[in-house]
Every structure is written in C-alpha cells, then in structure tokens.
Amino acid sequence: MKIKDIAKLAGVSIATVSRVVNDKPGVRDEVREKVKEVIKEHEYKPNLIARGLSSKKSNIIGLLLPKFTAYYTEQVDAIINYCNQKGYRVMITSSVGRFEGELKNLNMLYKSQVEGILYFVGKMTEEKKENIEKINKEIPVVLLDQAIEELSIPAVLPDNYGGAVKAMNYLVNSGHKKIAFIKAPYYDLEGEKRYRAYQDIMKRNNFEIKEGYVQGSDYSIESGYKAMENILSKSDQMPTAVLASNDGTAIGAINYLREEGIEVPEDISVMGIDDIEIAKHFIPKLTTVKQDLYYVGDEAIKLLFDYIDNKDLKAKKLIVEQELVIRDSVRNLNDKL
Amino acid sequence: MKIKDIAKLAGVSIATVSRVVNDKPGVRDEVREKVKEVIKEHEYKPNLIARGLSSKKSNIIGLLLPKFTAYYTEQVDAIINYCNQKGYRVMITSSVGRFEGELKNLNMLYKSQVEGILYFVGKMTEEKKENIEKINKEIPVVLLDQAIEELSIPAVLPDNYGGAVKAMNYLVNSGHKKIAFIKAPYYDLEGEKRYRAYQDIMKRNNFEIKEGYVQGSDYSIESGYKAMENILSKSDQMPTAVLASNDGTAIGAINYLREEGIEVPEDISVMGIDDIEIAKHFIPKLTTVKQDLYYVGDEAIKLLFDYIDNKDLKAKKLIVEQELVIRDSVRNLNDKL
DNA sequence: GTGAAAGCGCTAACAT
DNA sequence: ATGTTAGCGCTTTCAC
C-alpha cells in the first residue's frame, strides 16, 4: 500500500492524501474523513524513507557510545523515551572502544542524515576532538561525559568537581584527616576534576596527601580492589577513609578490606560516587554521591533539540548537580564507636 | 556534495560514480581510481536515505524493548556490534512498559522499512501475540525472552528450565532438602519454567514443598527482600536453602537474612540465577547459574539475518544453555562446618 | 565500459 | 479546496 493506491481508492489526488496523513489544512472535513477511512481500512503506513528523502528531514537522532555498558542504560533510556514520544527515531551505535570504529559510526550517522547526534565521549583524544568539531559544522552535536573546553559545542555534564567536594566535605566533617583517593583513568577528563576536588579539599584543610594515598583505577570493580591493596601496601600510615572515583571501585575496595579482615566502616571508611543501583543494597550500604543519570540523559536530548531548532544558539554547557547520599560505609570519627 | 557533483567533477556519469561507490564491476581501473580520488578529496558521503528508497533496502535492523534496563545491555551490545560491523544500522525503541507505546513503536519500525526486528517481549499478552504474528508476515521477527509456543516465529531463549534444574540439583547434592523458592512475576512465561523445574526436582526427590516456601517477586532487589521475609514468617519450618529466580532477588533475600542476624550460607544458603556483574563481588560471592547474555544477543541477531536471507526458513527456536557458577553463598551440608 | 533515463514513495510549490 | 508536477539523491535497467 502506497500513497498512490490510497489516492486511487479514495478517489482523490496523492497531494490530498499527503495532506490528511500529515494533518495539514486545506482538505474538506468530508474528504478528510473519507481518506482516513480508506487509510484505516487498508492499514496504510507511510514509507518514512521516502518521506525523509522528499522532505529532507529524517526525524532520526543518532546516538554514539563507546562500549555499551550498564552505566549508560538510564541515560539512553531517557533519550529513547523522549525521542519516541516526540515521534523521532533513534539510531544507536557503539564502537567497542576502538577509535576507527567510532569514526566509522560517526560517518554512518552522518550518511543516515540524522538530525542531531548525542555523543558519549568516553575517552577523549586529539583526533576525536577534530572529528567532533568537523561533524558539528554539519550536524548539531551534544556531548555527554566530557566537554571540549576550547570548542563551542554544547555538552551536559555531571558536576564532578562539585560532587567530589561534597563527598570530601562529608568525610572531613565526619572527622577524617587521613583520606586516600582512588583515581579515575587518566583519559577521563571529568575524573580529573574529582581528583582536583580531592586535592583542593585536602589542601584547604591542611591535610597531608601521604605517599601511596592516591592510586589509579579503570573504574572496574577489580581495579578498585587492586587500588585498595596498593593504598595499604604503599602507605606507611593507614588512611581512615578512602574516596573512590566511582561506586564500582568503592565496592572493589571494600571487598579487599574485608578479605584482609579490615572492617568497613569501623576500621576504614569507604565512599563512592555515582549511586548505582546496587549501592543501596551492598553491605555495608554505600555512602556515595548521587548522579541522576536519567535526568542527565533527559537534559541532553532536550538540549539537542534546542540546538537543532536553533543552530546559532550559544553552545551551552549544562552542569548537573550531584547530591550526597549518606548510608553506612562511612564512620563518624566524632562519635564514640 | 551529492553523486551528481562528483560525476561532474570526475567527468563521468552518475551511474559510474554509483558503481565505484558500491564496488561494482564495469568500470575501467583508471576511471575507478580517478573517481575514488574525487570522492576522497571532496569527502563525498552517499545519502543512505536516498539509497534506501532507490534500492528498496534500508540496511536497518529494528530493536524493540520494553523498558530499557541493565538486563538488556549485554544483549543489545552484542546486537549493535554485530550490525555495525556488517554495515547495518540499528534503530532502537523502548516502550516504558505501556502497551500502546509498544504498538506505536512497532509501527514506527515498520514505517522505517527496517529489514528485520528483534523483539524483546518482556510481558506477553494475547494482544501482543496478535501484533507480533501480523508484523511477522511483513518483516522477519526474532523473539527474545519469551517465545510464542503456538506460533512459528524464531526465538532465542535462555534454557530457564535446564538452568533451574542445574541449580536445584546442586542444592540437592549439597545436602539440602528444605528448599524454598522465590518466584518470577506471573506474566513471565520463562520464569514459570524455573518454577516448574523447582517443583519437578522437589518432587523427584520426594521433598515436601512446605507452606510458605514459595513466594513471589517482581525481580527487583526489594521484592527479593520482601519474599525472604515472607518465607521466614509464613513457614513453620525454616528452609536450609532458597533458590531465587534471579540474582537481584537473591541479593535482596541475603540482605534480609543478614539484617535478621541469619548468616549466609552458614544458617541458610541462597542461590541466584543470571550471574549479573555484581554477583561475583557481592558478599558472600553469589552461587548462581550463568546465562551468557552477550551470546544470547549474538545468536539472536545471527538468527535474524538468516531469517532475512531466507524467509522460508523453518522458524527455529534456539535454546541457550546455562551453566552452574559455584561460589560462596551455598553451604554443603555434607561437610562439617 | 559507460551513460541516459526511469523510477523508488513521498512532499511541496504551483496551478486551477 | 484540490490536483499536477517537479524534485529529493540514489540504483538500476537498457542502450550504445
């Protein structure tokens, strides 16, 4: 069934059918009803590809992810919901970490005539920056996870600096002075902000960052376990608390401590960042800083549509606040045990 | 840049450009090189929408999910990877649980001329069955999560019955006789199979399913907590082990037990199903049955392509085996403590 | 081996 | 208010 068939069946021209399909004015109610009837009876469904070609508007939003992991589900969920509800379709792409794949996928979206791209940056590189800048000249792009400081491209980011500050202040207010830190991978610019927050708060309080207190991770639970091991083995003074860059590494750290017979939070306090689902069910329930990822996704897609509607919009960088979630993994040293 | 511009620039016809773009024969090497050069220089990228209309082949696969949750990430990851690598794009859709939304999304995929649909069924209803049957007459559909017994539609399913049997046998071999069960939600047909396995194994061993031993859940951690509470309060004889329908409810159950001061696995053993990421990091490390979801997704997309290539293929229902993962949450009653 | 031309199924400008 | 028609950017016969 195509528009031509419906036109013939309804005894009108294809232009008229097109008008009623698209709810456009200029058709007598009587005729409109008749056409609608025929459409319904024959279950006519317009070919969106043809429509796209003709109208030069695809009604498709492109999504570009590095590897597809649980971290993205809420954001992607928000994006899909918003688009589907608005009558937009979303084309999703993931690059399994390899950069060539990412470039290929970016081009695929471009060739698909998507109206805008939501780009989850993941690991930022110079090459990537160039490509993003280039594509953004043709198609509106909104960045997630990481912004490009020097470029005027809209982005929505969690307030990682502010969130880490909140975490650190909570630790400090709970009486902790010897605080260790599990770092994000080096390429995560946003992770660097958390590290800066850690350093700033330590400095502001005149707490010394002892040797061995800062250990790296790749955000995995396993790397958190390893980092905790390093903190203990490489510090001559045991910390009373450790702030992990995400909940996963916090969980890994706790696991290591337990295996060593060190109680959390009695002996050492551990704090995470993210508030992933398991955080509130882990034992001890994880004290962390919440990042509302559904909200982040929602804001990002809205920003993208703003940007599509008004390409000249000043590129806006939206910072989403994080909020402290106090649970059981941090001990208040001011209290008696 | 469109094909016409390239043709002019290269001094050939658009047909020739089309041939080289699509790596088709019938072009002198010399000319082919020349055209490629021009394409490269001007970064010409073919408009896939136009190609789709002209060739009547969209190169798009549709994905239909109920709500988008962490459970789907691995499967979706596998699907996207496979498609992207094959030069296919994937259009993703999620229905936030509401059925009207699902029907709308199904039509959206249809109108988008997708070449095949991967349908994560979630909750099965009569209405849904009809719609699936109908759409499958036009577009190849492969079902995930749940099959429709009476319809000849390909599906790939985890072997939920077999998996639960493995879990139960492990419990039995570990000396457990008083085994409780946390059920899946009623609408999950696959969950029912796990329940049947539980009943069958209990019966085969002449173990009594005591009152209160079977409690419902909605798969959430919270509902597992609640189910465990019910098991304890409604049974006059405490079980020595409980099999949960998924890892989430197993974790909820363990949390409840710990709060009650009941040790796992010393006092009560708890076993899950799924092997979600946190399972191996939870304390105690969760004994469970592994369902390789990446594999499931991979098989599903392969099956879909088979189906697309050969629509008359006898609809195949692929059952993916599950495997026992022994960790620390089940006690062997045959051992001394 | 190469090009001209006829669509693909729509939308949108232009007539009427 | 309705119809005619010219594209949209490609692929694909069919001639040459």
TrEMBL record, chains A, B:
SUPFAM superfamilies: lambda repressor-like DNA-binding domains, Periplasmic binding protein-like I. It comes from the Bacteria. One of its GO terms (molecular function) is transcription cis-regulatory region binding. InterPro entries: HTH_LacI (IPR000843), LacI/GalR-like_sensor (IPR046335), Lambda_DNA-bd_dom_sf (IPR010982), Peripla_BP_I (IPR028082). Residues 1-55 form the HTH lacI-type domain. It holds the Pfam family LacI. The keyword Transcription regulation applies. This is Transcriptional regulator, LacI family. It comes from Orenia metallireducens.
